[in-house]
Specification:
By secondary structure, the chain is an all-alpha fold. It has helices at 7-66, 69-82, 87-102, 106-119, 123-139, 143-152, 159-172, 176-188, 195-212. It is elongated.
């Protein structure tokens, strides 16, 4: 706009600019306002979901303590159906798996752990579910399936635990050399002084004796 133009000329320039750009400006304002409200709605929705999921999980743990297995199962189903995107659905599945193991209902325990393995967002939760599931399969003497789960793990944080479990799988099958190597691998990733070091060293010695027998 010419700074030396008259007020009338400036007014005409403004009108002309508005005719050319007004629709875009209005559209931008509308979209911007919509995005702000949508963002606020999403945040409020997420907070409400988290709060409701926390309440449902608290109720589940209370029902477990009361020995109300039917009620706890209903709360778990609620968490999986309505709040599956929250960590509380994972916590619920772990809790139900634990209760199932305590009742020797290993089929149900495996189902709960499978759900976590397939649906959890955090890799740590997935690895815990995989580890517990592999231990159940080992207890059922389903060695091949347990071995598959062990080899699926790619987490450095859980490598020692999975190496130890791999050693256990080899040991019960009489593959003592492989078991000893797996236990040694498990020890290598530990920090000196960890309590598991003692247990692993005992297992290593046991495999050496078994191999010599």
């Amino acid at each position: 706009m010419d700074i030396y133009a008259s007020d009338e000329e400036k007014g005409e320039d403004i009108k002309r600019w508005w005719r050319e750009n007004g629709r875009s400006v209005i559209t931008g304002i509308v979209l911007g306002t919509a995005l702000i409200f949508a963002g606020r709605f999403w945040l409020n929705y997420q907070q409400t979901q988290a709060e409701n999921a926390a309440t449902a999980y608290h109720q589940l743990t209370s029902l477990v303590k009361e020995g109300n297995a039917t009620g706890a199962d209903q709360q778990n189903q609620l968490l999986l159906s309505d709040y599956s995107a929250t960590p509380y659905a994972v916590f619920s599945s772990f809790e139900m798996a634990t209760q199932a193991v305590n009742k020797a209902d290993y089929a149900s325990a495996k189902n709960h752990l499978e759900w976590v393995k397939d649906n959890a967002d955090l890799s740590g939760h997935v690895e815990i579910a995989r580890l517990r599931l592999a231990k159940l399969l080992l207890a059922e003497q389903n060695y091949d399936a347990a071995q598959v789960l062990v080899t699926e793990s790619t987490s450095d944080s859980f490598s020692s635990l999975f190496s130890e479990l791999q050693g256990d799988i080899y040991a019960v099958q009489g593959q003592y050399t492989d078991a000893r190597a797996a236990y040694q691998s498990a020890v290598l990733t530990l920090v000196d002084g960890e309590p598991r070091q003692v247990i692993l060293n005992i297992k290593i010695d046991d495999m050496a004796v078994a191999n010599d027998s």
